[in-house]
Every structure is written in structure tokens, then in C-alpha cells.
Fold this sequence. Notes:
Largest sheet: 4 strands, mixed
Number of strands: 15
Number of domains: 5
Low-confidence stretches: 70-96
Amino acid sequence: MTDPYKVLGVSKDASDEEIKRAYKKLAVKFHPDKHGNTTSEKFKEVQSAYDKIETAEKRKQFDLFGADGPRPFQFHTSDMDLNSIFGDFFNMGRSRRQVVTGEDIYVGVTCTLEEAYTGFSRDISYKGREICNKCKGTGAKKSARCSTCNGSGFTTTVSNLGVFQTTTRTACMHCRGKGEVVSEVCGTCQGAGFSAKKDRHFHVSVPAGIESGSKLRFTGEGEPSPDGQPGNLYVEIMVEPHVFFSRQKQNLLCTVPLTYSELVNGKKVKIKSFDTNLEFEVPAGTSSGTKFSLSGQGFPLRGFVGRGDILVEVVVDIPKHLSSEYKAEIDKLRELEAKYVSEDRKKYVQYLASEEKYKK
């Protein structure tokens, strides 16, 4: 069994705050969003270690029993009726009513890449039902005793297993454990138990760094249930494309077109991110397709300290439509370029010459 204290690099008498700081440091170091799948196993190991000792109660249990916790008490039985001993005890606190959770509701919200970067709030509207005020969700104006379970709300099954006899009580399928069935439907909801769907309004706060396709869950904001808990509201975030930036995990990507002369002579390039203005130096003689990294300027790492990077690719901007004057200047440039040929260019010219010679 892996020792969580050794994984996190802390002593057994470390404080909760020291353990938390060590975990955050290692989580950022091995987070897959920054390093890809190469560190995913190490990241999982760090998470697992922290889960075992993150609180004083968990540390106490781990120190006493290890990762598996205390073993349950085991006992052996001989020829006796287990149901006579335990059956009534287990059943007396069991609810007769079959609990049914309300349905979940799904809503889509569109946002810009900048909003995903900074976080945002949105007031949303969606359709939802309410429990009928008249019948309180039963769907009945009048009810009658269920003939299947005789009003008890459950059915009983007796099973003989050799020398043992067990009795199982389950909620009645006919009345769903209520003990009553509808004899006359409610005139307000026509037996549905719910009102017609109405507009609902909800305020959503979306954290910074959210990814497109992520779903936020809001417990109890879905459809109601007369028998149990209401369902949940799920808000799916869809991020619109940006005119300049694109996203790759926690990094922002962009392409900056520069002229030939700017790549040859070098240039200071300005980048306007979502919350600041940045500037970096493109050295003289930079090739088209070279990438530069602006560390710590990308999306925040959700749940952790730190950010991704902005990755900038510089490419040569080739004009599509040239005037006669521009073409004349290009011809002059071609003559000058012949005097300042790189070694790679020389090898290429020599290669072409050897191929032509071979063909002859």
C-alpha cells in the first residue's frame, strides 16, 4: 500500500494546512492540463494520497486501520430462522412509500471565450412544472384502498432456503407504496399531479476557466416530486469561437502575421489578452512558423493555483495583390538576396543542379 505521507512529502505530525499546501504544489506540478497524459498517473497518485489524509478524521482512521478502514464484524449462524431475529427490526423503520425523484432539466448557455476566461453570471429562463396545489401531487380528487396490498403499501414474499426462511417486504407496484389508488382524478391537474409547465428564472454564476461542453449541476432545481426530492438542473456551457484566440486545454493559441522585413530585422510584438496588454521580442532572423510562449497568461487551472500559457505563432504575411511599383522593389530585393544566401539555400540550389545534371 502506498504511504500517502511519503507521496505528498510530509511528516505524520504535519498540520492540515501543511498537507493542503503540499498537495496543491504537487497537483499543479503534475496536472495533465499542463503536461498532457505523461503525468496523469502521478497526478492520480497525488489526488489519492490527499483523499486519504485531507482531514483530521481521515488521518486518524488511516493511521489506525490503513487505506481499507476497519473490517466489518463477521458472524456465523446455525439452524435458525434469520427472519424471526432480524426481519421485523429491518422493516419497522422502512418507509412504505416508494420514493421517486423528480426529473432533471437540461439548459444550454452560450458564452464568449472572454467570458469563459474571466467567469460570468447569467439569468436564464426555462420551463418547469409545479406540484398541483389542489391534490398535492397525488393526481386524485378521491382515493380508494389498494386492492393489491390491501392498503398496507407493500407486498410480502416468503422464501425457503434450506433450514432458513426469509420474508421480504417490497413497495406495492400498483399503488407505489401509498396504500391508496386514484378513484376519481383531480379536476385541476386532470390526474397529472402537476401544473402545466411555466417559465422559471434562475441566476447562474459560472467560474473562470470553464470549458465548452462542461455541465454545471444545481441540486433540487429540476422537476418536483410529490414522493421524494426534486430533480436537478444541469446547465451546459457552449463557448463561441473567438476572432483571434483559440483554446487548447488551459492554453490560449494565436497566430500573428508579420512582414518579411519584420522577421528579418526583428520586431516587438504586442498581444492584447482578455485582462492585460502584453509585449514580447521577435529576434532578427526569425523563421516563419516559430512559436513563442507567454508563461502564466492563459486560462486559470480550475481548483488549483496557476494558469496556462499564451502560445503565439509568427508567420510571414504574403501580400496577394502587388502594384507595379511593389513588383519592381521585389525584383531589386531578389538581386540582393542572391548575395546573402543561407547555407540551407545553397544546399538546395546544389541539389537541384545535381538532379538536372543527372537527367542530362
